[in-house]
């Protein structure tokens, strides 16, 4: 294990606040979510996190500084001395026990290898990150999708109703396999919703511009209006204008147990082909109340 002070780039005299500040600076740069698929950066992030956890424990830090444990938290072998009393003078002398030192060192390395082998067997698989595009109506209504994996095979993804661009789905255990006997990593799916050619979404509401004829606007009518779940009959009030907004309740997005609405904005459309009868009628028509739609602009 590397020296935790060196890993965080701080001096051994660093205060807890300086250690925390150094960790946060490195974590922001090395976080796996900002470096998807970069194994080297992920390993560096783990080292930085371990070093921070180690030095944030006052007792571990004291014992490490005193040389009692190493950077992995394992006890260091201590030199053992014994006293041998000789001679009538009773004067004592000390000598190092080389056998005990080598025996402790052998035990230390054996324990270290066993621990590392156990950690390798229990290591968790790597997380995998994907980006999935879905149609507008699939995002509103929910859907089943598949992702083709780079290494082969496919991943089934359930799109929940009401999902939005930028949201991330987590599929537990669907990431990379463990190198040993540990759990598989997770799959993280970032969603991108493709725009629709006439629907738009605003929160939990759906908006729609609906063209209607001059006759439908003047006399009122019932017309078919599309919604994310299919067409419905919409009643156009008599005398409607372009910009009039009608509400279709609970025809929006379902989220959190609550339905949004569909807001239909009317657009009165004139015929695209010449209509001589309409032109003749309008030429002779004189409104009784002299209506002027631009009066308020004067």
Written description of the protein model:
The protein is of the alpha+beta class and 298 residues long. The protein has three domains: 4-122, Orthogonal Bundle (Helix Hairpins); 128-193, Urease metallochaperone UreE, N-terminal domain (HSP40/DNAj peptide-binding domain), CATH 2.60.260; 199-288, Urease metallochaperone UreE, N-terminal domain (HSP40/DNAj peptide-binding domain, Sandwich), CATH 2.60.260.20. The chain is built from eight helices and 15 strands. It has helices at 4-8, 16-30, 39-55, 58-65, 98-122, 136-141, 214-219, 276-284, and strands spanning 81-85, 92-96, 128-134, 143-148, 154-159, 168-171, 187-193, 199-202, 205-213, 221-227, 230-236, 245-248, 254-255, 258-259, 262-269. A four-stranded mixed beta sheet has the order 8-9-15-12. The chain has a three-stranded mixed beta sheet with strand order 3-7-6. Strands 1-2 form a two-stranded antiparallel ribbon. The N and C termini lie far apart (81 Å). The relative contact order is 0.08. The model is unreliable at 80-97 (pLDDT under 50).
Strand order of the largest sheet: 8-9-15-12
Structural class: alpha+beta
Distance between the termini: 81 Å
**Major sheet summary line:** 4 strands, mixed
Annotation field: number of helices: 8
Radius of gyration: 37 Å
Count all strands and give the number.
15
According to CATH, the homologous superfamily of the largest domain is: DnaJ domain
CATH topology annotation of the largest domain: Helix Hairpins
Tally of separate domains: 3
General shape: elongated
The level 1 CATH classification of the largest domain is: Mainly Alpha
Helical fraction equals 25-40%
H/E element order: HHHHEEHEHEEEEEEHEEEEEEH
């Amino acid at each position: 294990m590397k020296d935790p002070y060196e890993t965080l780039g701080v001096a051994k005299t660093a205060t807890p606040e300086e250690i925390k500040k150094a960790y946060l600076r490195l974590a922001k740069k090395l976080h796996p979510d900002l470096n998807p698929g970069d194994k080297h950066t992920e390993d560096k992030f783990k080292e930085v996190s371990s070093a921070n956890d180690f030095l944030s424990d006052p007792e571990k830090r004291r014992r490490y500084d005193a040389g009692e444990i190493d950077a992995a938290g394992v006890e260091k072998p201590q030199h053992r001395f014994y006293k041998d009393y000789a001679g009538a003078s009773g004067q004592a002398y000390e000598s190092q026990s080389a056998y005990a030192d080598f025996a402790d060192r052998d035990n230390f390395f054996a324990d270290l290898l066993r621990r590392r082998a156990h950690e390798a067997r229990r290591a968790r698989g790597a997380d995998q990150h994907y980006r999935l595009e879905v149609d507008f109506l699939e995002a509103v209504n929910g859907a089943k999708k598949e992702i083709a994996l780079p290494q082969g095979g496919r991943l089934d993804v359930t799109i929940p109703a009401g999902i939005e661009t930028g949201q991330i789905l987590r599929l537990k255990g669907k990431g990379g396999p463990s190198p040993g006997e540990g759990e598989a990593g997770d799959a993280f799916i970032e969603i991108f919703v493709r725009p629709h050619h006439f629907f738009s979404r605003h929160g939990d509401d759906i908006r729609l511009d609906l063209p209607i004829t001059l006759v439908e606007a003047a006399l009122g009518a019932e017309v078919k209006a599309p919604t994310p779940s299919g067409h419905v009959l919409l009643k156009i009030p008599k005398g409607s204008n372009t910009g009039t907004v009608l509400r279709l309740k609970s025809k929006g997005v379902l989220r959190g147990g609550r339905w949004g609405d569909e807001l239909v904005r009317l657009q009165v459309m004139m015929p695209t082909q010449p209509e001589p009868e309409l032109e003749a009628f309008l030429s002779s028509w004189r409104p009784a109340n002299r209506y002027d739609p631009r009066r308020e602009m004067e």
